User: What shape does this take?
Amino acid sequence: MRFRLRSPRRSHEEELDTELRTHLEMAVRERVERGERPEEAEAAARREFGNVVLVKEVTREMWGWMWLEHLLQDIRYGWRFLRRGPGFTFVAVLTLALGIGASTAIFSAVNPILFESLPYPHAERVMMIWDFGPEGARLHTTFGNYRELLERSRSFEAMAVMRPWQPTMTGPAERLEGQRVSASYFRVLGVVPALGRDFDPSEDEVNGPKVAIIGEGLWRRRFGGDGAILGQQIRLDDNPYTVIGVMPAAFEDLLAPSAQVWTPLQYDKSLPPQGREWGHHLRMVGRLRQGVEIEQARQELNTIARIPVMEFSRPPHASLANGLMIRSLQDDMTSGVRPALLAVLGAVLLVLLIACVNVTNLLLARGAQRRGEFAMRAALGATRARLVRQLLTESLLLGVIGGVLGMIVAAFGVSALLALSPPGLPRVGAISVDATVFAFAFAITTLVGLLVGLIPALHISRTDLQTGLKQSSRSTAGGHQLTRRTLVVAEVALALVLLVSAGLLLRSMQRLFAIDPGFETQHLLTMQVQTSGKRFDAATTHRFFAQSLENVRQIPGVSAAALTSQLPLSGELEDGYGVHFESSPTGNPEADQGALRYAVSPGYFETMGIPLRRGRLLNTYDTADAPLVVLISESLAKSKFLDQDPIGQRLQIGPSNGPLYTIVGVVGNVKQTSLVLSQSDAVYIPTQQWHLFADKALWLVVRARVDAASLAPAVRQAIWSVDKDQPVVRVATMDDLLAASAAERRFALTLFEAFGLVALMLAATGIYGVLSGSVTERTREIGVRLALGATRSQILALVFRQGMRMTALGVLVGLVGAVLSSQALTRLLYGVSRLDPIAYLGVSALLVCVSLIACWVPAWRAARVDPSITLRSE
Amino acid sequence: MPKKTPYRNKIELLQGTLDLLILQTLQWGPQHGYGISQAIRINSGEVLQVDTGSLYPALHRLERQEAITSEWKISENNQQVKVYRLTASGKKQLASERSRWEQLSAAIARALNPQSEESEA
Assistant: This one.
């Protein structure tokens, strides 16, 4: 016999087989050595051995039987143990339920967004392709570039472009969310209609047939789920569309989550140079060919972008000079919320960890009281392994009870999360407590059960149980006190990490809301008013809006009102145009960058509170027939005219064959897309003077003397009194929009605050628990000290010192941890350094204050000790 | 304290005896199943033949009770063999079962032979 040979992967069954086989072989060999003939020896050995199958069977019975017996026994003991200390059990189970519940809830929210693959076949091959702007900004693509890529690229199985579309469906009138898409759109996603057919490429031609595919929800709601819908016509924006297909119920259009209708894009493949075919307003999606890696595709796209060919000429603003951006749909969708979600996931795991540490501490305290019990059992023959298993069973039992309650907490948590979730959160519909989430909860419950039991179990097995039996339980507490104190230090440190993160986020939020958006955000009601249908030509559209505005201004409580084609901070600013100055000291026209175009009614600046810097504002004389005028933002004036007066200069907006507008005024800069981004170049023209098209949907801004939200019904009524069929949507106060623009940060902040608070409470109870345990254990010592002349304030100081030492150590460790972990937060911070001293100092001070409070009760109890009683009682 | 597991009560004598013999055999050093059965046979003067259908369940049960442990080794004949060894608690069990057995056999001896004891007194 030479060396061990035990592979852990070998099953019991195989081991038993080998064991019995060796037995037989040995018996045979011995008989042969004694001189028997091999065949006879074999037969005799077998006879002697008996029925191999039966031997195996009875042997096997030994395994399961004992295992189950022990387990049931352990569970019985564990249960009795938990019942004996209802207070302890209640606190421990509650702590674990909160920890497990919160983690499960967060996981269920994060899972479909960050980890689960998207609901398309081979979703990892679905890519988004964007144009790169001059400063690395992501731009929408143009149809012209799409056509070129379609012809030249070999990496993709299918490619499509799309743009949002909100048609009104008549009878009864309803505003639908929809998309205009290339015929290959659904092929790119890998989904086919459940009913009817997909688009045919021949339908995606300019002036092609008006066909539509509708969503299952719309089909059930409006058409009773009747298959006869195929081939029927529905009216969208007063045009008849033939329904050719219905999408499956499970289909999620991740590129337009609420879309219910899709029609072919029908752009002109001859690419007229001044047409919409060269506007940057499309999104492009492609499905990689099997076996093509994203890196290959990226290289190919960039080669195409870098080397134009004759047959595909590109206008300057769509030259692809900055290359193309390609990334998976999943990355594309989640890049905005990913930092917030990962941070929140990290935070909740910290909370779970703190909860575990707390329960471990409680178990240790209980363990100290049970020292005698365990010593007794060991003396009666229980092995150490058996005792460890007993302890782990108990902690697992705690974990399981905590886990079951945690699932209830998680169910509530998920609905709270959904209510809190930022509007940009993708796949909200997929957030639920499903099988994956159950598996996660089960896994962490088991892990937590083992984790919290591990230290107490090791403790029991390390200490000499004999001494536990001889001495009374509390005098041997030195070792476990050290462990408990270490755990409290860890708790304080973890809590500090969480609180510092919360503090940094809070400071960012303050900074964010301290930003001047460039206009008055309070008492401002906003909404989008849309016109639809054939009867709205340019003149009727204008009349409708003018009359509506007039009515709104009559409403009591309204101090001013105006219309604009785009609304700052509404999250939907995409109407950018190239702006070409007739003469500008700084610029060749080719390098002229775009600015956002606002078609506004007179009174817009007064209503919004945007200050006039130079020249004049728009007035009622700036009509369609009047000379073309424009106001520009201060930033644009500064970059184009430096210190010169821009008033009287002329510029073109959009295509270079357009008319010239004369600058009549300069207005203050406004935060347009978000509070964070400084981009503020803007041009303002009167609604009636826009030369390319009549804006069909305008934002109405209403300055209120009273609470802005309360005016909404009256305003809506005033518009509908002009034409009751026109949709009024996205009603919100500017304060709401402002809050929404910071929603991701707010979401992270709220959760961090909640988690930080829980962590703080757990850390405080940890300090309290250890100190009061220590005071109880040291009552005799304290009594002796008092008897020997120590003053009460010295005793008080003794306990406080002990508590503060743990806190200080925890804070120090926590500060290091916070510095390291704050790196994960940088993308969520605004205007503060991740090492912001105020956040670190403030939070440390808070922790110290709370731990002082936690120290107070045990310290006070220690100072109350009566030496005569204590000493006599021993 | 834990109750005795039920099957022990059921076939107390037989199993107790075999357990005792196994533990006693292992006291002389680690041994595999076949070796244990041979040792018992030889030490009992070829009287006791240990049935494999009792031996292996007993070994596995004792292992579960942590009275013995096992490990895999390679024999001189290059075979994988499972070798059992007495544990600390197994030694205690051996001592207590041994004294129980001695009491039992003494009691049985007395019960079978009451006169001789009286006459001696």
Residues 19 and 58 of chain B are 7 Å apart (CA to CA). Confidence is low (pLDDT under 50) at residues 1-13, 117-121 of chain B.
